[in-house]
Amino acid sequence: MALTLAEAKKHSTNIQERAIITELAAGQLLSVMPFREIPGGGHFWRREESLGDVGFRAFNDTYTESYGSTKQQSEALRLFGGDIKVDKAIVDLEGGEARAYQIQSKTRAMRLAWEGLFINGDANSTANEFDGLARRIQSGSSQYFTNGVGNINLDKLDEAIDSVDAQGGSKYLVMSKSARRALSKIARANGQIDIERTAFGYQQMVYAGLPVLELDRDHLNVAILDSDPTDQDIYVVSFGNDLLTGIQNGGPQVRDLGEDTAAPVLTTRVEWYCGMALINGRAAARLNGVNANASL
After folding, report:
1. I want to staple 219 with a disulfide (CB 3.0 to 4.6 A). Which of 75, 85, 105, 112 is the partner?
2. Average pLDDT score over residue span 7-36
């Protein structure tokens, strides 16, 4: 059963790990995306490709024989994290807070990096990372929609929304802040948006019943979705155990490695064996070519 990080935190007894999970779940994406606990170093499943035929038969007749088809799929876990080294003298003079701040800063960088990889991850260019949605949903796919010239085409956005299976999961829109402002301006006129408050107390826009998740910049201060506001994507996703889910083995870990023998520094390692799996191929869709700066 896939759990969000906030839910998983309730089962952790390690204070440091609970603090790490809290920081990771502070972003809009990782606060709602579930993570499926898997054994070993990867997840293997069969994705349904087609169903067998059905029909009617007459008395003393037979049914036409047919079978559903499936295709083997797999996702490997990735080793994600970093080391934090703090001079022992700083800890002695300034206290443990100096080290705690560096751990929190590293975790914040992990969260922002994960948000970037969720969209732009590319295992072909960086072998140790997982593929993001941009790599998984490309032109020619049934889940790829072209917005056309101009600002957000609500008809095309609704097509993308309808193409995504929910099956008991939760649908969301994922977009940049500039795209969210454009959508708000267009949809406000006909009453298609609402404002709700999240579990963390933040206001969140809702379009056609779907909460909007905003992605801004990654840990290197690079725009995730709107490096070019005139040509960007909006994604529709459905999170769930058998839909689009994160995968992990053991959850985020914090390990105190003590003082380095080669230098007077205290080393802490934050590591997470994680990845992302698109279990159902129709659990995500992409609306391409949105110009958030176009006039209405």
Report:
1. 112
2. 85
The residue with greater pLDDT, 201 or 129, is 129
Write out the DSSP string of 79-119: EEEEEEEEEHHHHHHH-HHHHHHHHHHHHHHHHHHHHHHHH
- Within 207-258, where are the H helices? none
Whether the Cβ atoms of residue 65 and residue 263 lie closer than 8 Å to each other: no
**CA distance linking residue 103 with residue 254, whole number of Å:** 9
Beta-strand pair 265-278/78-87: antiparallel
Separation of alpha carbons 106 and 268, rounded Å: 10
Which DSSP string do the residues of 113-171 spell out, in sequence order? HHHHHHHH--TTTSTTS---HHHHS-TTSTTEEE--SSS--HHHHHHHHHHS--TTSEE
With residues binned 3-state (H G I as helix, E B as strand, rest as coil), the percentages for the chain, rounded to 5, are: 25, 35, 40
210: helix, strand or coil:
strand
Q: Which domains does the chain have, with CATH numbers?
A: 3-48+72-290 (3.90.1690)
Q: For residue range 161-196, what is the model confidence (pLDDT) as tens digits?
A: 999 998 878 899 999 999 999 999 888 877 788 887
Closest by CA position to 126, among listed 188, 80, 84, 190: 80
Beta bridge partners of 101: none
